[in-house]
Records
---
Amino acid sequence: MKRKIAILGSTGSIGTQTLDVIRRHRDRFEVVLLSARNSTDLLIRQALEFDAAHVVICDESRYPAVADALQHSGSKVWAGVDSLCELAGMDGVDIVVGAMVGFSGLRPTLAALRAGKVVALANKETLVAAGSVVTRTARENGGVILPVDSEHSAIFQCLLAAGDNPVERIHLTASGGPFRTWERKRIAAATAAQALKHPNWDMGAKVTIDSATMMNKGFEVIEAKWLFDLDPERINVVVHPESVIHSMVEFQDGAVIAQLARPDMREPIAFALAFPERLDIGARRLDFAALGGLSFEAPDRNRFPCLELAYEALRRGGNAPCALNAANEVAVAAYLKDLISFYDIAKIGERALAGLDFVANPSLDDIFATNRATAEIAHGYID
Ligand code: MG
C-alpha cells in the first residue's frame, strides 16, 4: 500500500525537497494534495508531474490561472486556506506534511490533527505560537506529530534508543549562522542579503534570517518543549558550526546519544515519511577522516539576544511565545525589505513581550487575537 501524502506548502524549500524524496520512491508514496500560497507556475508543474488529486492555491486571485492550466489534468483545483483546511483532514490522506511558513500554517495543521492525521511538521511556528492547543488537539483526536525540523528529528531518532529511561536533558545544536564570528557592531549593520547566506543549510528566506538572529534556535527550544514535553532547563543549546551533529540526548548515567548526518533536509523529511523505515535518498555520506574534527561553543547571548528572548517567552508561557512569534514574523518581513536593521528584530520582539496582554491558558481564539494584536504593534513600531 502506498502512503498517501498531502503537502501543505509544496513549492517552498521543504515542499520541493519532500517531492524530491517522493520522486525517488514513487512505488511507496502517492501525492494526493499539493498547495501553495502564490507560486502558481511551480504548483502547476508539480501537479502535472505527480498527478495530484487535489491542488490548492491559497491566494484566491490566482485560482483562474491554476484551474486553467490544470483543466485537462486529473487534478481538482481549489482556492483559499479554508479549502486547504477541509482537504488536510480528508479521508484517504495518511501523512500531512506541514511545510507552510509561519503562523499561516496553524489552521491547516490543526485541521489535519483534528482529523487524526499523522502530521510531518516542518512549520515550527505552529508549535511556537500555539503549542498547548496543537498538542492537545493531537492528543484528543489521535493525531500524531512527527518532527521534520532536523534537530527535532535527531532527538526523535536518539530517543528510539532510550527505552523507558528518562531524559536528563537534550542538546540542540546550532550552526551559529553567517554572523557567528562577526563582532556586534558589524552584525548591527548587516543587510538581509548578507544574512541570507547561510553557511551550511539551504533553506527558505524566513528561517534563514531566523538562523542569523538565532531566533530560529530559540523557537526550536520552544518546539522541543512541546514535542518532547521538556522544561526549558532541560533544553540546552550548543553552537556546532559544522552542522554534522543534528542534536543529542543525555541520560542520567551521563551517556549522550547523538544523531549525525551531512546537512541535508531530505534526511529528516524521508525519516518522517517512511517511519520507521529508512530510505535511500541519494544522500552524500559523512567522511569522518576528511572532517577531521567537530567543534562546539556556547551561544553568545549578547550578540544574539533573540535566543534569550525565546527562553524568556517559554518560561513565561501562556501566549508569550505566540506574541514573540508574531512580532518576529513582522520584523523579519521588514528586515528582508531593508526597512529595519538587524538588532531591530530583537527590539521588536522585546517590545512585544513587554507590552503583552498576558493570557496564562490561551484558547485558540486567544492565540489568534494575540497574533493579530502583536502584529499591529510591531507594524506600528516599524512605521
Ligand atoms: Mg532546525
---
Amino acid sequence: MEKLFEIKNLNMYYPVTDGILGNIKGYVYALNNVNIDIYKNEILGLVGESGSGKSTFGNCILKLITPTSGEIFFEGENILTKKKNQLKTFRKNTQLIFQNPYMSLNPRMKIYDILKEPFIVNGIKNKKEIEEKIKKIVSLIGMQDEILSRYPHEFSGGQRQRIAIARAIILKPQFIVADEPVSALDVSIQAQIINLLTDLKQHLNLTMLFISHDLSIIKYISDRVAVMYLGEIVELAEKNEFFANHKHPYSQALFDAVPVISDDKKHSKTILKGDLPLPNNPPSGCKFHTRCPYAMDKCKTENPELKELAPNHSVKCFLFEK
Ligand code: ADP
Ligand code: MG
C-alpha cells in the first residue's frame, strides 16, 4: 500500500511554565516516540481515553503545532523542515474537522461566506467558479442552497457539523483529521454524520485520521485501529483483527469499559485500576504498568517496543514478546 504519511519518532512536550516570569518548570509529555504510517485512502481510527495525546497527534501531523522532535513525511517530503511559504499545497491538501460545531463556525458570517473563505485564503478569486463549487458542496452534504444566506446559529449541531465538513472538503483535500467529530452530537445524529464522512471518503478518495474514544464508532468507520496510551501507540492492527483479537491489556481495558447490559458479565471483567497518570510525570518503564493487571517486574523499569506479532498487527507489551 502507498503511504501518504510516514511519521518517525514523533515527540511533543508542552512546556509547563511558572507564574508571571514564565520559567519552564516541567513538561507535559503528550507524545512519546510515535512511529506510524498512514496509507493512502485508509481511515485510520485513533482511540484512547481523554488526555492520551490523540488531538496533539492530529494537530502535529497537520503542522498546526510544531512537535518537539521527530519527522513527518507527507508524500515523501518532511513537512517539519519546510518554511511557511513552502507549505501552501500541504495546507490546501490537509484539513481538520473538530469536535465542537458550535465553535468552529464564525457566528457573524453567513454560510456562503464561511464556505467562500477557503478559496480566498488560497487566492482563488473567480466568482462563478466559487459559486458553482459552493452549490455543489451544499448538495453533497445533503443540504439546500437556501442555507447560504443564513447564519450558523440558525442550525442544529448536526447541521453545523455538516457545514463544517463542507468547508473542510470544498477544496478537495487529500487528507482530513476528524477529531471526535460526533462526540458533541446527539446519538441520533451521530450515525448520519458518520455516514456522510464515509460517503465523502469514497467520493473524494480521502485519507482520514478519525479520532474517537468510542470503540463502536471506531469499529464502524475505520480500516485500521491505533490505540494510544499516555502519548504512545500501544497497539496497531487492521480493524477486524483488532476487534476479534486485540492483545494489549490497555486495549482489553477499553473494551471492558464499554457498558454491558448483563450484570453478571460486569463482575467478571477487569476494570481499569485508578486514573490516567499525569503526563507531566509519567511512570517509568511501560507507562501502563501502574494500571495493568498483568504487570511484571520488568514492566516497571523497561519500556517495550511496538512490535509486529503478525502481519498488520503490532503490540507494545512484554507479554507478547518471545
Ligand atoms: P486527547 O485528545 O487524547 O484528549 P490531548 O492531545 O488533548 O489528548 O492532550 C494530551 C495531554 O497534553 C494532556 O495531558 C493535555 O492536558 C496536555 N495538553 C494538551 N494541549 C496542551 C497545551 N497547549 N499546553 C499544555 N498541555 C497541553
Ligand atoms: Mg482530544
